[in-house]
Structure formats: structure tokens, C-alpha cells
Write a structure and sequence with these properties.
By secondary structure, the protein is of the alpha/beta class. It has two domains: 147 residues, Diaminopimelate Epimerase, Chain A, domain 1 (Roll); 62 residues, no CATH class. It is built from nine helices and four strands. A four-stranded mixed beta sheet has the order 3-2-1-4, with helices on both faces. Strand 2 and strand 3 form a beta hairpin.
């Protein structure tokens, strides 16, 4: 999971300013390495490694039953535990391998919870018109969650927000976090302007200026 550089963050922030100036909403972009520590993943990897090692030991026993002895049984036990230990250690060092043991529903729920928690902790609900939109990218899970405040929620459906997410996810899976944000912000701008959002509207003119920072929010992860 490559971190976003200062230059890349600046390009995202410039695009946020453009979207805000054309739609009148206040956009906050955030990126976190992962939404949860997932302590169970190394243990699941351990179980798989031990199981595969056990199958290999069983195959050897069936093929060469004359090898069975107390010493052979001890070596097989050590081999099974070693196979599980190696798999568990690999899961702690290689995110792509660890992700194989993460269920889709668990990942979806954790990223959603992370986004909603960030929305509250950063007090994004404090805008005068309640028009903030949080776009959170979680790199480990390769997932995007958009959390709109009430002003946008009533005018844009959940499926329409998901269409924005769909433009980001393929690029995120390829490790192109910055391109994912660029695609998502572009799709969001098109969606909102198509819905009639415009910074030059009378309502937008009466509202105070931008009260949320445009800087990319970088989460430290769990």
C-alpha cells in the first residue's frame, strides 16, 4: 500500500476545490491504510498452512506406512506447526496474502464504520447547510465509502452514490489511489451538477463560504 505523496495530495486537493466551486457542496477526501487491524487474519492463515501441511504429512503416511515411528510422528507435528506459523507470519507481512482471508461483508462493514466514525470525529456535520460529502478510501480493503450529509442525502440516491464508487474501485484495486480519487471526484461533479447543484444558485450565495479544509485527510489506521 503506497502512501500518497505530498504532490499527489496537492493534486487531489486542487480537484476538490474545483468540485466545490462548481457544485456548492463541501467535499472532504480521506485515505486510510486499513479500516481495522483484523487480528483474526494471521490465525486464519495459520489454520490454512497447518491444514495443508497436515494433508502433505497424511499423503506421505499413506504412501510410505513403513516410515511411521515416534520420531516420524514428532517430525510431522513440527512440520504441521511450522507450516501454519510460516503462513501466519506471511499474512502479517504481505497485505495481499492477508486479504485472501478477509470476508467481503466484514470488509464492507468495517470500512463503512470507519467512514462514519471519521465523519463524526471531524465534525463534518457542522457546515451551515449540512452539505458535506466525505469520500473515504481504505487501501487494504480496496473499498470506497461516500458519506453525504442531509442536504445531499435527500437529493442523491444511494445507488447514484454507488455509481461514483464504481468508477473508483477498479483503479484502487490496481493500487492507483490518486487516479481513483480523480475519477471519483469527476463522477461526483457530473452527478451533482446533473442534479442541479451549482455554486451560483441563490441558496449557495446566501450560505457562508467553505468552512471545511480542502486538505486530504490521512488516517493512521487502527
Amino acid at each position: 500500500m503506497d502512501p500518497v505523496t505530498k504532490e499527489e495530495a496537492a493534486s487531489i486537493e486542487r480537484r476538490i476545490v474545483e468540485v466545490e466551486s462548481r457544485t456548492g457542496v463541501q467535499v472532504v477526501a480521506a485515505v486510510v491504510p486499513r479500516a481495522d487491524s483484523y487480528p483474526e487474519l494471521p490465525w486464519r492463515a495459520f489454520a490454512l498452512g497447518a491444514s495443508l501441511s497436515g494433508l502433505v504429512a497424511l499423503a506421505i503416511d499413506i504412501g510410505r506406512p513403513d516410515w511411521l515411528s515416534a520420531q516420524a510422528l514428532l517430525m510431522q507435528t513440527l512440520a504441521i506447526l511450522s507450516g501454519g506459523t510460516v503462513a501466519g507470519l506471511v499474512a502479517t507481512q504481505l497485505p495481499a496474502f492477508a486479504k485472501l482471508f478477509l470476508g467481503a461483508q466484514r470488509a464492507k462493514a468495517e470500512v463503512r464504520q470507519c467512514a462514519e466514525s471519521l465523519f463524526l470525529s471531524r465534525e463534518l456535520f457542522a457546515t451551515p447547510r449540512r452539505d458535506a460529502v466525505l469520500v473515504l478510501v481504505s487501501q487494504f480493503e480496496h473499498r470506497v465509502v461516500i458519506v453525504p450529509d442531509v442536504y445531499c442525502r435527500g437529493r442523491v440516491t444511494a445507488s447514484e452514490w454507488e455509481s461514483v464508487v464504481a468508477t473508483m474501485t477498479p483503479k484502487l484495486r490496481d493500487g492507483r489511489t490518486v487516479d481513483a480519487f480523480a475519477a471519483g471526484l469527476g463522477a461526483m461533479e457530473a452527478l451533482l451538477t446533473g442534479k442541479g447543484f451549482a455554486a451560483e444558485s441563490a441558496e449557495a450565495k446566501r450560505a457562508p463560504g467553505n468552512v471545511l479544509p480542502d486538505s486530504l485527510v490521512r488516517g493512521e489506521g487502527p
